[in-house]
Amino acid sequence: MFIDSHCHLDRVDLAPYGNDLATYIEATQADSLDHLLCVAINWEAYPAMRDLVVKQPMISISVGVHPTEEGGYDPSVEELVDVAVRDKVVAIGETGLDYARLENNSAAIECQRQRFRRHIAAARQCDKPLIIHTREAQADTIKIMQEESAAEVGGVMHCFTEDWSMAEAALALNFYISFSGIVTFKNAKQVQEVAKKVPADRFLIETDSPYLAPVPMRGKPNYPNYVKYVAEKMAELRGVSVEQIAAQSSANYARLFNR
Prior knowledge:
The chain is α/β, with parallel strands linked by helices. It has one domain: Metal-dependent hydrolases (TIM Barrel, Alpha-Beta Barrel). It has helices at 21-27, 46-53, 77-86, 106-126, 138-147, 164-172, 189-197, 227-238, 242-257, and strands at residues 2-7, 33-38, 59-63, 91-98, 130-135, 155-157, 175-179, 203-205. It has an eight-stranded parallel β-sheet with strand order 1-2-3-4-5-6-7-8, sandwiched between helices. Helix 6 links the parallel strand 6 and strand 7 (175-179). The longest helix has 21 residues, at 106-126. The radius of gyration is 17 Å and the shape is globular. It starts with a strand and ends with a helix.
């Protein structure tokens, strides 16, 4: 019924499930979790993440390096493409721009911009959609997406927290808008307004677990099966049933990621 379009299973606490992913997956059946996309954020950790989920047919993966990752290896366009093809990933990312803690650090900002451009180039070369993270970098994010022709492959603006003007710009570039547990937060009025306006055929739902647990689990470790709470809030905001949100977001996911 539900698809979690963005999670980090290699960082989720599986101790309550005997540190066994298969046991956790079995436990999620009661919450009607049908599929997950496990998203890479670090080059060095990618092989372990891939190996953790490879035997689970209900889990897809991406490859990429998060914009805030520092000190690790920065793959070339060719390396990203090689891994994407070899491992049959469904997307490139997560990538993007995050200026939240950079202030006037021009070197770090430029590093993020170049990394973002390489990821877009890789996505275009292997014809995979992009998973984009953006925070306090609206103008530059859209500018680079335009300059690098990201619309050719499209993708998703994950864990969207920006305003409607940015959502419109992303939609115009062939991107989907994904909503995380943030949409359930009482003070997330801006995100909730965007959630009401996004066209039915262009939204996804996600957990970004283990981060950002939705209400009523806020403050606790997050898990992919908690995506049901995101769906419930989306249904409330859009005035439709939870079943409709589940069906529409699943259809959108399948269309974007060719599932």
